[in-house]
Design a protein that fits this description.
The protein is mostly helical and 113 residues long. 82% of the residues lie in helices and 0% in strands. The longest helix is centred in the N-terminal third of the chain and has 27 residues. It comes from Acidisphaera rubrifaciens HS-AP3.
Length: 113
């Protein structure tokens, strides 16, 4: 394995882990924009908290190699649902951004080890 390949995998892991942990913590903290998005999607605070806990916990599972695939698959699953909500609400730009994170999470789950 060459150094460039290792650096690219590390960058992908940091991007996915950092993005999802930040989003999860914002959901748990109840930032105004997260509250607003979930309200627009017709979802309550319990749903927001559940997704926040899932994203934060799954991002932590990316750290050990042994649980990395499980964490990445959990993040992909939460993204599938979120993309659906965003698309239903006509928020195509948000759905496209989240879809990009979904693809990155799947890359972590099924990429070379």
């Amino acid at each position: 394995m060459d150094i460039l390949d290792s650096l690219l995998r590390l960058l992908r892991l940091l991007t996915v882990g950092g993005a999802f942990s930040a989003m999860g913590l914002m959901k748990l903290a109840g930032t105004p924009w997260e509250r607003r998005w979930f309200a627009r999607w017709g979802r309550d605070d319990d749903t927001r908290h559940a997704f926040g806990a899932l994203e934060t916990g799954a991002a932590l599972l990316l750290v050990p190699r042994e649980t990395r695939r499980l964490g990445a698959l959990a993040l992909a699953a939460s993204s599938i649902r979120t993309v659906d909500w965003e698309a239903e609400a006509g928020q195509e730009a948000l759905a496209a951004a989240r879809f990009g994170l979904l693809v990155l999470a799947l890359g972590v789950a099924f990429g070379r080890r």
